[in-house]
Amino acid sequence: MQDKLTSIFPRLVFPFLLLGLSGCAVMDKSDCIQANWHGLGRMDALNGEYRFSAREKACSKHGLAADESSYDRGVKEGLIGFCTAASGRHYGQNGGVYRRGFCPVHTESEFLSGYTPAQQKYKFQQKTSELQSKIAATNDLLREASRKPSRDSNEIERLTAELKRLNEELRMQMYLRVLD
């Protein structure tokens, strides 16, 4: 059953994620007039967000009211799909930041069982990539400084020390990952 959910999850959520990306902009008057508050609540919950206040504020600027009870019913439905281990894994792998208490108490531990290791792996990959980029850039600067006819030995020394520090930090990052 878990494998089936994992394979279905991306197909179910992807359309909502696309809609969620378009929902990042403030709702305009037309959006507010045509709003399906239940659907918006469901979509926001599936994206790990509760955005009623921002949506309500945007619509009130156009003199239009928002339907909080319909939005909240949609959120409750969306949380059923969001607060699963498979969703947690997907959310964590993509760098989502979870706020404790977003999922109901009875489903939060299941969500976190997928989210926590995936989020840790995501952070590890981000940090490793950042360090590798810094090492490459420092290597380039060091090569450039070494090629100059008027070599600045202090700059070369500084870059060499920085390169050593970055490589040591990367090694430590890899070592800590192995211990996890």
**Count of helical stretches:** 8
Could you tell me the strand content as a percent range?
A: under 5%
Low-pLDDT segments: 1-24
Integer average pLDDT: 86
What radius of gyration results from the CA coordinates?
A: 23 Å
Helix/strand structural class: mainly alpha
Largest sheet: none
Number of domains in the coordinates? Answer: 2
SSE ordering: HHHHHHHH
Number of strands: 0
How many angstroms separate the termini? 28 Å
User: What's the overall geometry?
Assistant: elongated
Helix content: over 70%
Task: Write up what this structure looks like.
Residues 1-24 have low confidence and may be disordered. The longest helix is centred in the last third of the chain and has 43 residues, at 105-147. This protein folds into two domains: 2-82, no CATH class; 121-179. The chain has helices at residues 2-22, 29-34, 37-46, 52-60, 68-82, 85-93, 105-147, 153-179. It has 180 residues and is mostly helical.
Brief overview:
78% of the residues lie in helices and 0% in strands.
List the helices and strands and how they pair.
Blueprint: H1 2-22, H2 29-34, H3 37-46, H4 52-60, H5 68-82, H6 85-93, H7 105-147, H8 153-179
Helix pairs in contact: 3-5, 6-7, 7-8
Descriptive terms for the model:
180 residues, elongated, 2 domains, 0% strand, disordered N terminus, single chain, mainly alpha, 8 helices
